[in-house]
Amino acid sequence: MANMQEIAKMAGVSLGTVSHVLNNTAKVREPKRTRVLEAVQLAGYQPSQLARGLRRDTTNMIGMIIPDITNPFFPAVVRGAEDVAFSHGYRLILCNTDNDHSKEIIHLNELRTYLPAGLIVIPSNFSDLTTHAESYRRAGTGVVCVDRLPKNWSGDSVTANNEAGAYNATRHLLQLGHTRLATITGPLHLTNAKERLGGFKRAMKGAKLHLSPEYIQETTFDKQGGHAKTLILLRLIPRPTAIFAGNDMIALGALLAVREAGLRCPEDISIMGFDDLDLAETTNPSLSSVSQSGYQLGTTAARLLLDRREGDTSPAKHIVLETLLNLRNSVAPPPEAPQDNSSMKRRRGSKQK
Amino acid sequence: MANMQEIAKMAGVSLGTVSHVLNNTAKVREPKRTRVLEAVQLAGYQPSQLARGLRRDTTNMIGMIIPDITNPFFPAVVRGAEDVAFSHGYRLILCNTDNDHSKEIIHLNELRTYLPAGLIVIPSNFSDLTTHAESYRRAGTGVVCVDRLPKNWSGDSVTANNEAGAYNATRHLLQLGHTRLATITGPLHLTNAKERLGGFKRAMKGAKLHLSPEYIQETTFDKQGGHAKTLILLRLIPRPTAIFAGNDMIALGALLAVREAGLRCPEDISIMGFDDLDLAETTNPSLSSVSQSGYQLGTTAARLLLDRREGDTSPAKHIVLETLLNLRNSVAPPPEAPQDNSSMKRRRGSKQK
DNA sequence: TTGTAGGCGTTATCAG
DNA sequence: CTGATAACGCCTACAA
What we know:
Two copies of one chain form a homodimer.
Chain A: H1 4-11, H2 15-23, H3 30-43, H4 49-56, E1 61-66, H5 74-87, E2 91-96, H6 101-112, E3 118-121, H7 129-138, E4 142-146, E5 156-160, H8 162-175, E6 181-185, H9 191-206, E7 216-218, H10 223-234, E8 242-245, H11 248-260, E9 270-275, E10 288-291, H12 294-309, E11 318-321, E12 324-326, H13 342-347
Helix pairs in contact in A: 1-2, 1-3, 5-12, 6-7, 8-9, 10-11
Chain A binds a DNA duplex through helix 2 and helix 4.
């Protein structure tokens, strides 16, 4: 690979002049200027990002740390971030943490040595991002947090309006006539899971419905969790007629469990998801879900980061993107709407607690 | 961030000595050695990858170029590559091409300036990878091609056995008694699409079945394509009783089209996919598919690359991973099956799972 | 307007 | 075995 010195020789100018025309850092007169450009063209020269970064004390790389690219929600976020980054000349270094915060720390520490232009992070469980981000910020490197927030996070963030999304979804179930609603939440130490539960509870409270604790099941954000917890919910008496799942993977597990139990969705039980993944429209029945745009989460985060780099020093921003309720076939009114199974109805007193 | 000079000062040794203990490039005696290590620990020092790369003329970054992380098959490949890379101290720079070969060229040219340890590429449509890889190879940088191969590719590659996978899948359909088989292929300039069609044809030929050209439809590897081409196939007379789809996304589109047409799968028409994506088990009916492990494709590619870097200079390797036929509910014998009788024996015990 | 030279943080070479 | 010192390729004062 040619270097600047060779380009200078080819164009018959000095090294500094080449740099000047490449970076527009000084007006170079026409005869030389084009000679340089021609030489660059001819040699297919591209400046070493390494040397440039070393000298400038910052590179065009953006570190992106996510739990797991294999988890269907995250690729969209990554893609959104990459599109914005790429079009501005930045590149992404992708790191998976598997929700392991010690792996996250390794990435956080190492990424610093690339002098990245910034960091976009979807925190792992029990993330220690807050303390580590501090050292980035001291170095003038932006860090934006996406989708969920670690403990005590006060920096820039881009999240969905989980609370409102969950509230609206739950409202919809209530309006259909459901009164025995259950929810299967993601890990409640994650802010997004907690907020969704918050929205669910608010809607329940608004409807003046009592919510006994066994109707709230916490699990991991995956199919297995949804499956296991649904089996528990289905054994409850009275059985819930609707389940609000913390995300689509949980909803998927719920769907499978309901089928296994010999029940029908939505006739016997309604299921509502969150995320509106692509798979939501191909399940059987297709899944009603709270739609949040992962892509937009990604583009917004990247733009925020680039603004910071351009010198935006305003106070921390917390951008919240609204959700949309996407109704499909997994929700319906409860069976025989005002439950006529009187024996079941009597039991309801038992959860008076 | 502390640099080596400061560590040297802290430990009361010279800069060179610090480098020596960090890289094991010379035996440093015990009193100093531990002092250095302690200083490193204390300062949380990590060497600048930029400076190191500049000096060593190579970094610990691996460029990974893929069509689109949003496409459900690719994240697994990326994850496989990342896992192997990470555990060996390498990091991934992720680039999406959108199957646009001019975007691919941009990435190829720019990645070189990071002096990457190697490149893992899933080529775009009409990829010009072959010529560009040449310049990488001259610089001693390995390039391995995954999933599909560009024109005239003669370097390292890791692919699935598309031909055999398609052949086995088609054989299965034939053994169920289907005689009017159609296929919807991906873009035939992509080697994987072409090989799958090859396997399909070989099975048909083996069964001495005529295959008229309108029973072979070519399209893009997505749902829309599968949907549109299925509608065409369903209008043919006689209508095919089984469709072998070039991948699961096409199969998904086919499923939707069949349903729209008021036909039932698998009673009226069988559908076979390829890839065995996660979504295959949640569709209605669940999708029979040729399973290939994207994750394994990724790990294998990364390992191959790292071997090269360790000095393996043997001739180009073409690693081919076997597939597995994963049977679910989207295939069944054809309607009015004329073969309850003789030849339907399970003579092929093959490798079906 | 153009050229020169110093230095970013490392590694590697070569004296001591 | 240890410690200077010269690159690596680039940018940028500063000098011409």
